[in-house]
Amino acid sequence: SQTIHQWPATLVQPVGSPLSLECTVEGTSNPNLYWYRQAAGRGLQLLFYSVGIGQISSEVPQNLSASRPQDRQFILSSKKLLLSDSGFYLCAWTEGGGVSPLHFGNGTRLTVT
Amino acid sequence: DAKTTQPPSMDCAEGRAANLPCNHSTISGNEYVYWYRQIHSQGPQYIIHGLKNNETNEMASLIITEDRKSSTLILPHATLRDTAVYYCIVRASNTGNQFYFGTGTSLTVIP
Question: Do B96 and A51 touch (CB under 8 A)?
Fold first, then answer.
């Protein structure tokens, strides 16, 4: 069966520091991968998605970037964090194409101080 | 952008059926309706999806109107653990179409 791993679960970082969040999926090949962010008390905002290695689409211009160095690995990064980057970051995957649903990881709660 | 409209909050008595409505009046012919729920501080959990026929699984039933402009998620016997935010999403099956979440319905199951 397929599983998605996302780490760390919580993170506290100072303003101006770099960020790297990692997500990996097991048990499937060539998945579509996604990064979402959820601000406190808000809905989910799609940040990035990827349909293949090295293919990244950005939904919202911001202080963040994403990379997909391997088929089942998706990384969210920032060179310098802002206070507004605080939030709950969720990685998700779905089978490439078709109607299969989106499956989420357990998320990373980032607090920028 | 989210293409659905849901009530912001609902209450349901424990043991009763919870009926969560969703309006998607601009849905296209190739768009499916998906339902997710999110318990506080967890990732959203997939519940069910459908195109035009009613669907049922071990978690819930999905009723889609004949014109497909609205749907209802039914939790047949709500428990306290069903307290969560429920999201209704429409998405086309074509590659490259994304899942856009709205603000959902906050369901509170009352003992």
Answer: yes
